[in-house]
Design a protein that fits this description.
- The chain has about 675 residues and is an alpha+beta fold.
- Among the domains are: about 230 residues, Alpha/Beta hydrolase fold, catalytic domain (Rossmann fold, 3-Layer(aba) Sandwich), CATH 3.40.50.1820; about 35 residues, no CATH class.
- Helices cover about 20% and strands about 35% of the residues.
- The chain has 13 helices and 36 strands.
- The strands form eight sheets. The protein has an eight-stranded mixed sheet, sandwiched between helices. A five-stranded mixed sheet has the order 1-28-27-26-25. Strands 2-3-4-5 form a four-stranded antiparallel sheet, covered by helices on one side.
- Helix 8 packs antiparallel against helix 9.
- The protein is globular.
Length: about 675
């Protein structure tokens, strides 16, 4: 397969950025901190149009018309919107899903991340927000969601929304029912197709846009129900109270529901729940790791493969033709993993995404009728000529003998025989999450570009490595999960790779908690600590979640399972803000003021405690930023501050300070 030159429609957008990256000895912070230049790339069903987000000075979506080989449209949106995904629903209509941070002011200030769905006619660039509450008084604000590209009429799509029985009744979601609407995406007009009950929380739609069933959640009883349409009624085929067992859609034949969950087993499996009854039946179980997702045909929903956990995060293929196609592309692009981002109805044109932990993502358009491919665009063109760190999969022994999986990124030109390197340990967020074994990690690669080794432990509590691995981390904040991080650092120190005097712990969200906990509970191990949007007081975090949703809220139950109750002694004992007097390392905290997951006050708790303890610290307030660092300016600010801080404490300035101390003695 022959790869052609970059398509000119994107090359002109980022040629300047690519040129600036090679001038300096170190790649500039902006090379890593700028959000991907192109992202969410998608292909129209007939293959004529390609759409992509564009990371410029505005929130923009750009459109390429392949017939003219020109960039024909650039659609700009409100700067407060954050694009979360988009797909074509027919040959010329694009559906884009955004989120925005909404502040509701009352007796106290409360913020929430809410959604907005837009339709774009790529032929003329016109756009329209769908099911907007301001012009649809019966629709509860920001409740619209996309269901199916096929609606009740040829030019319509299906969406769900919370529909108020009476607009005058107010805007409480308790007064609304989850309903299916058929929407004309170009005019915005809609009509009700089916009303759900007050407990309906989802719909099952077949490939022709027909309603087959619905899912329900009884908040008080925490009961989840799957109902299948039976004439004018719905009959129950399965009920359960397992919060970790979730449906993922209909089977291709439309006769069963697919679901993921462990159901008391050793690993998360793929299940089928037949309409005929009998409960969940196992479809696939990996012998070692969790099933993390599925690969399905975008048109007929055939099950093509199963995504499996572990460090490699491989795909177990169930369809030989789909496997052969991906393997052929991977053979043409060695060292990269291929993900199919879209294809035409006849499957002759395929949009492929090639990426690895060592290589930023590149989108290719492949014409299988001619076996030719062309580059659509690169996510980080400014890094194209930058030597990046090599990522290795490793395991290391914890203090109890357990083998902890991890990713180790070394600076360019270094291998595992390297000695006396400075180390940044970068625990992931969640903690019920994991680092990617497939995707490019801009944060860890930035740190490695500055000469630091980077350790990313998949500590117990992480997902993807089996239920024993995940469940071992429950209610172990500051304890077993933290020990696994600590033991990884000690392993690299004992191997001689890492200088024990030049170690810093850095993380975001739960990783931010781990950074603060590392400074508080293992003060002799770290020279510095950096928390981004981290939890500092577990008791107050639990209270905040309870105050927002009430004790019946699934989020409250989730955090009680994972952290504990406010009355548990360990919850207070392992809160870093309540142990600030133990901290000896210098701590830096960065936090977005619009964070709706971990409120900014969590950083204020730690700041107050450290001030009282007279412990050196810095605080960086990230303006107009959310929990995920969704915007380029905040990422660049965060990395710039991190770069300075690391250099001061374990980088070049550390070397100078040590030499000065020796000279003075």
């Amino acid at each position: 397969m022959r790869l052609l030159r970059s398509a000119p429609w994107l090359a002109t957008l980022f040629c300047l950025l690519a040129a600036t990256a090679t001038r300096a000895a170190l790649p500039p912070v902006e090379s890593f901190g700028t959000t991907p230049i192109i992202d969410n790339v998608t292909l129209s069903l007939d293959g004529r149009f390609i759409a992509s987000s564009y990371a410029g000075d505005k929130v923009s979506i750009v459109i390429l018309d392949r017939n003219t080989k020109k960039l024909t449209q650039r659609v700009d949106f409100d700067q407060n919107l954050k694009l979360r995904g988009m797909n074509f629903v027919n040959d010329h209509v694009l559906i884009a899903q955004f989120s925005i941070t909404y502040t509701q002011r009352g007796s106290t200030e409360d913020k929430a991340e809410i959604g907005a769905v837009f339709a774009i006619d790529v032929r003329d660039g016109s756009s329209r927000q769908l099911l907007e509450a301001k012009t649809n008084s019966r629709i509860y604000p920001s409740s619209g969601g996309f269901l199916s590209r096929k609606g009740a009429a040829p030019d319509e799509i299906l969406m769900s929304a919370l529909l108020l029985e009476n607009a005058s009744a107010g805007s409480s979601p308790d007064e609304a029912s989850n309903s299916v609407l058929s929407v004309n995406p170009l005019t915005g007009k809609w009509r009700v197709i089916e009303k759900g009950s007050r407990t309906t929380n989802g719909w099952l739609i077949d490939t022709e846009g027909r309603i087959v069933g619905r899912t329900e959640f009884n908040r008080k009883e925490q009961r989840r129900t799957i109902r299948i349409k039976d004439g004018d009624d719905y009959r129950i085929i399965y009920e359960h109270t397992d919060p970790d067992f979730g449906t993922i859609g209909l089977s291709a034949d439309g006769q069963s529901v697919l679901a993921l969950g462990a159901r008391g087993g050793d690993r998360i499996r793929l299940w089928s729940i037949p309409f005929s009854g009998g409960g969940p039946q196992p479809l696939y179980q990996d012998p070692e790791y969790d099933v993390e997702g599925v690969v399905r045909d975008i048109y007929d929903r055939r099950l093509l493969g199963v995504s499996v956990g572990g460090l490699e995060q491989r795909v177990h293929w169930l369809d030989s033709a789909a496997e052969a196609r991906v393997k052929a592309l991977e053979a043409s692009l060695p060292g990269r993993r291929i993900q199919i981002a879209g294809y035409t109805r006849d499957q002759k044109l395929v949009l492929a995404y090639a990426v690895s932990r060592n290589n930023p993502g590149v989108y290719y358009l492949i014409d299988f009728s001619t076996n030719r491919a062309e580059v659509v665009g690169q996510e980080y063109p400014q890094l194209a000529k930058v030597a990046l760190g090599k990522v290795s999969n490793i395991t290391y022994p914890a203090r109890d003998g357990y083998k902890v999986p991890a990713y180790l990124t070394l600076p360019a030109g270094k291998d595992q025989s390297a000695k006396d390197l400075p180390l940044v340990v970068l625990p992931h967020g969640g903690p019920r999450a994991r680092d990617s074994g497939v995707g490019f990690d801009w944060w860890s690669q930035f740190v490695a570009s500055r000469g630091y080794a980077v350790l990313q432990p998949q500590f117990r509590g992480s997902t993807g490595f089996g239920q024993k691995h995940e469940l071992a981390g429950y209610r172990q904040w500051g304890q077993l999960m933290q020990h696994d991080v600590t033991d990884g650092v000690k392993y690299l120190i004992e191997s001689g790779m890492v200088n024990p005097d030049r170690v810093c712990i850095v993380g975001a969200s739960y990783g931010g908690y781990a950074a603060l906990a590392g400074a508080a509970f293992t003060p002799d191990l770290y020279r510095c600590s950096v928390s981004v949007a981290g939890v500092s007081d577990l008791v107050e975090m639990l209270r905040w979640v309870e105050d927002r949703g009430g004790i019946e809220d699934p989020a409250v139950r989730f955090w009680r399972r994972h952290i504990g109750k406010t009355s548990d002694p360990d919850v207070a004992a392992f809160s870093p803000a309540r142990a600030a007097d133990k901290v000896t390392a210098t701590v830096m905290m960065m936090h977005g003021v619009d964070d709706t997951v971990v409120p900014y006050v969590q950083t204020e708790y730690m700041e107050t405690a450290m001030r009282r303890a007279k412990t050196p610290h810095e605080v960086v307030k990230l303006k107009s930023e959310d929990h995920w660092l969704s915007r380029s300016p905040s990422r660049i600010e965060m990395l710039s501050q991190l770069d300075r801080f690391l250099d001061q404490h374990i980088g070049s300035q550390y070397k100078v300070s040590v030499e000065e101390q020796v000279a003075q003695n």
